[in-house]
Specification:
Helix content is 37%, strand content 22%. The protein has 263 residues and is an alpha/beta fold. α4 crosses α6 and α4 crosses α10.
């Protein structure tokens, strides 16, 4: 068993598996919002965390090179809506989400839309609500259970607005949903360990896709390394900077330029 001397946190989502592949069994798995609390409190050295958290907190840094991003449709981050966008007055929000809430606010703001946001109490309520933002496995489950595909209403009458698609159309840049966020001046050994783990996971991606039990094989093949991308390159870094600029405008909070650190 590979045991890390560092305190590392990640999420339960399928899309995170390649980045934590080489870290062993000591990674703490928590919802994104809980991970943020643990990192800010200093109880974690690094967390695979919503990119928003690094932009709201100047004491955190972003490991360059890898992340969870899309270069178009992402499939698992979107708005399930029964009403046409201009008529939406209220959206229920997946409470696990940090970045996606702000991304949706930015994308709607660009169209002059400013609906009320309210928390989603339980995932099983989603089919009965008119407009719901869902992320991660909950979004995948909803889309598959309801037959909710792009451009066509599902069984519950919802259409799916893929936020990755909308961001790409608006900004012509990749969107990074999560990255390894570290305490400032984190040890070089930790940075190297995280990147090595991700590189090992990406090299083993066919094996990961074949061996996981979530969903079916064709979906895993389309999702991991397809909808979900992992290389944080120059366009991805520019996408993060662009998101930070928009976030400063719509959030009403101080937003700090992303601090990228090398392994």
């Amino acid at each position: 068993m590979n045991i890390s001397p560092h305190r590392i946190g990640s999420v339960h989502y399928l899309n995170a598996v390649p980045l934590t592949y080489g870290l062993g069994d000591t990674v703490v798995l928590l919802p994104p919002s809980r991970l943020a609390v643990e990192l800010h409190a200093g109880r974690l050295d690094a967390a695979l965390l919503s990119i928003t958290e690094a932009l709201f907190h100047p004491e955190h840094e972003i490991l360059d090179g890898v992340g969870i991003l899309s270069r178009g449709p992402v499939f698992s981050v979107g708005l399930a809506h029964r009403q046409p966008l201009p008529e939406i007055r209220r959206i229920h929000l997946d409470t696990a989400s940090c970045t996606s809430v702000n991304l949706l606010r930015i994308l709607l703001d660009a169209q002059g839309l400013h609906p009320e946001f309210t928390p989603l109490d339980r995932y099983d309520q989603a089919p009965s609500l008119d407009n719901v933002l869902l992320i991660g496995n909950a979004a995948i489950d909803f889309r598959r259970n309801e037959g909710c595909i792009d451009g066509q209403p599902g069984r519950s009458g919802h259409q799916w607005l893929d936020l990755g698609t909308l961001w790409q159309e608006q900004e012509k840049l990749p969107f990074t949903y999560a990255a390894w966020v570290l305490q400032r001046n984190a040890p070089a050994a930790l940075r190297r360990q995280l990147l090595d783990s991700a590189q090992a996971g990406l090299a083993a991606l066919p094996s990961i896709v074949a061996s996981r039990s979530e969903y079916d094989l064709p979906f895993r093949q389309a999702y991991l390394g397809g909808y979900i991308q992992y290389l944080m390159d120059a366009p991805a870094r520019e996408g993060i900077r662009r998101f930070a600029t928009h976030l400063a405008r719509v959030s009403g909070r101080p937003v700090y330029p992303p601090r990228f650190v090398q392994p």
